[in-house]
Amino acid sequence: MTDDISVNLTDKVALITGxxxxxxxxxxxxxxxxxxxxxLHGFGDPNDIKSLVADIARASGRKVLHFSHDLSDLSMAxxxxxxxxxxxxxxxxxxxxxxVQHVADIEEFPDAAWHRVxxxxxTACFATIKAAWPQMKDRGWGRIINTASTLALxxxxxxAAYVASKHGVLGLTREIALEGARLGITCNTICPAWVLTPLxxxxxxxxxxxLGKSFQEAAETEFLTDMPTRRFVDPSExxxxxxxxxxxxxxxxxxxALPIDGGSLVV
Length: 267
Ligand code: NAD
What we know:
Blueprint: E1 13-16, H1 22-33, E2 37-41, H2 46-60, E3 64-67, H3 74-88, E4 93-96, H4 111-139, E5 142-147, H5 160-180, E6 185-192, H6 198-211, H7 215-223, H8 235-246, E7 257-260
Parallel strand pairs: 1-2, 1-4, 2-3, 4-5, 5-6, 6-7
Helix pairs in contact: 1-2, 1-8, 3-4, 4-5, 6-7
Bound molecules: nicotinamide-adenine-dinucleotide.
């Protein structure tokens, strides 16, 4: 775990999309621990989410509320920012982290899956950024961090929509960085390689059942061979990257992709 760094985010409000599990949840915990109030967002079992909200609030002493707007709908993405602003008074930090995957050969790739992946992974980022922009501009301070993937920088077979969406997120990041440069708003993208979350676990499970292997065997032979470290990145390591980019230490870092990849992009 990478939870012993500290940054002062007191009085900041952070909206982290897709934070009911995986990387987003680790980020919510880390930003709360460093003083931010948290708009937790995403789907899941209502009782589990209630426990998460209580747990983060208890551990951090911060205000934590949950939202479940469906980001496959652009108008709901915009509404999410509006509702969080009403509930907390503002949004200072926007982490566009919600993401979905669909794996299929291009000739069999369902049109509906293409639209869903692009909507959640890319279009929702446009909508939330646009909605949060006026208040960040008025305050002269904003942090926008988009979770892309190493697949914003390289491609992988059978992931047409995901790769296109994540490359799009990096393009959007560069554009927003330029527009925010003189407004005190930074925008960056983090690019994790394999992180063992529900999204990655589904892919390991599918490969394990296709090859008749155990989960562990499939993970080692089909996924971790991509990683020079031969281990999954821990969600807290990605959260630490987000925390740094939220801080004033990173105020001159904008428009960039930060790989958190165990060296997988350099082989
Ligand atoms: P996850 O499945 O644990 O979390 C995804 C989150 O997005 C959940 O909170 C889920 O409820 C939410 N979500 C999904 N569809 C939604 C929708 N239509 N509307 C609103 N919320 C929705 O996955 P994760 O691995 O933590 O992924 C987080 C981000 O990291 C994604 O953008 C993903 O592409 C990216 N990423 C993951 C990995 C990895 O190996 N896990 C690697 C690189 C990038």
